[in-house]
Design a protein that fits this description.
By secondary structure, the protein is α/β, with parallel strands linked by helices. Helices cover about 40% and strands about 15% of the residues. The strands form three sheets. A seven-stranded mixed β-sheet has the order 2-8-7-6-5-3-4, with helices on both faces. It has a three-stranded antiparallel β-sheet with strand order 9-10-12, with no helix packed on it. Strands 1-11 form a two-stranded parallel sheet. Helix 1 runs antiparallel to helix 8, helix 2 runs parallel beside helix 8 and helix 3 (about 70-85) runs parallel beside helix 4 (about 100-105). The longest helix has about 40 residues, at about 240-280. The structure holds pyridoxal-5'-phosphate (PLP).
């Protein structure tokens, strides 16, 4: 049976070039990068070259890159790290953030920023919510369930105004963005984005799972979460996962190189999906923002249809899709993202997420829609 994978927002297959670059670091170059003999120093050099490469893609300095085991850890380091450095302060997170931002925020004084029906942060409301003790705002670049792209530049402009008013005596006001879903399709130059912290994830960019990094702009104060041997400039102790770091750097490089062409190609696939769907099942509702959407994520509500059942039936026909985020392990809680954009419980239970990637072709989309329309007609 033909297998069509439409869940690239959950996981991507590793790029063969990435795997090839990682391989020596499991075998010949297995040394601890902190070892002082020649072979250890060579591994350290490879690790630092990877850091420089990630930094370059983010328009950052190598010292501003901390490697982590995936985006969950990067987000935790950002939120918990900052909040531990500034006791009694407050963090504001958008209501559509991934759980790895929402959950750590709950340990501190926190507020959730409401979003519009299209999933976009309401900047005027955000501005009113920022009290003098707010130290961190966290707004993800691309939403993993509905694909909405947040207006970070406008948020930065507003934050800059507030920063000026605070002056040098007040608390800093940092902006963190979880960009786990962004590197395949978006420019991640941190100065252009205007962020102080940025999380990325290898597992979504054809690199290894549990690889990731947090960009921490020079001068930002935060506390480490993992203490020990002082690796990663004291911010993340533990012997570095060298192969994983090498894989992340290679994957990011390739993703950014392919970005312009892939963004265009995948956006066309998404459009083809939407147009065909609207012809065959006009009741279907596309969630998110028509104007500000990532090319690879499509959330659809099929009124009156049970999403779990439809997903299983699609699976039986070789089509792999998601009912929401695959990232909250085994949870059958209704999606907080769809709830935040004002979908009621029945609509949430009728929604599926389709996500596209490098191996998705026009034929895959046509086949998927044929299968989907057959099932919806029954
Ligand atoms: N943030 C976003 C936006 C995601 O989509 C995901 C995973 O799906 C994560 C964070 C967490 O990534 P990981 O589970 O690989 O740490």
């Amino acid at each position: 049976m033909k297998q069509i994978y439409l869940d690239y927002a959950a996981a991507t297959p590793i790029d063969p070039m990435v795997l090839k670059k990682m391989e020596p670091f499991f075998k010949r170059q297995f040394y601890n990068p902190s070892a002082v003999y020649l072979a250890g120093r060579a591994v350290r050099q490879a690790l630092e070259d990877a850091r420089a490469s990630v930094a370059q893609n983010l328009g950052a300095r190598p010292a501003e890159i901390t490697f982590t085991a995936g985006a969950t850890e990067a987000n935790n380091l950002a939120v918990q790290g900052i909040m531990r450095a500034f006791p009694d302060s407050e963090v504001l997170v958008s209501a559509v953030e991934h759980e790895s931002v929402l959950e750590p925020a709950k340990f501190f004084r926190h507020r959730q920023i409401p979003v519009s029906r299209q999933g976009i942060v309401d900047i005027a409301k955000l501005e009113k919510m920022i009290s003098p003790r707010a130290v961190l705002v966290s707004v993800g670049l691309v939403n993993n369930e509905i694909g909405t792209v947040q207006p970070l530049r406008d948020i930065v402009k507003m934050l800059n105004r507030l920063r000026k008013l605070r002056g040098s005596q007040g608390l800093p006001l940092y902006l963190h963005s979880d960009a786990a879903q962004a590197p395949n399709y978006f420019d991640l130059h941190t100065a252009r984005l205007g962020v102080d912290l940025l999380s990325i994830n290898g597992g979504k960019i054809y690199g290894p799972k549990q690889s990731g990094a947090l960009y921490i702009r020079g001068g930002v104060r935060l506390r480490p979460l993992i203490l020990g041997g002082g690796q990663e400039n004291g911010l993340r102790s533990g012997t570095e996962n060298v192969a994983s770091v090498i894989g992340l750097a290679a994957a990011l490089d390739i993703a950014q190189e392919k970005r312009p062409a892939e963004a265009k190609r995948v956006a066309q696939l998404r459009q083809l999906f939407i147009e065909t769907l609207q012809r065959t099942f006009p009741q279907a509702v596309v969630n998110g923002s028509p104007k500000h959407s990532a090319p690879h994520i499509l959330s659809v509500t099929f009124p009156g249809i049970d999403n779990e059942r439809l997903m299983m039936e699609l699976d039986e026909r070789g089509l792999q899709v998601a009912t929401g985020s695959a990232c909250n392990a085994g949870s059958d809680e209704p999606s907080h993202v769809l709830a935040a954009i004002s979908l009621g419980a029945p609509a949430i239970r009728s929604s599926l997420r389709f996500s596209f990637g490098r191996q998705t072709s026009q034929n895959d989309i046509k086949y998927a829609l044929k299968t989907l329309s057959q099932l919806l007609k029954n």
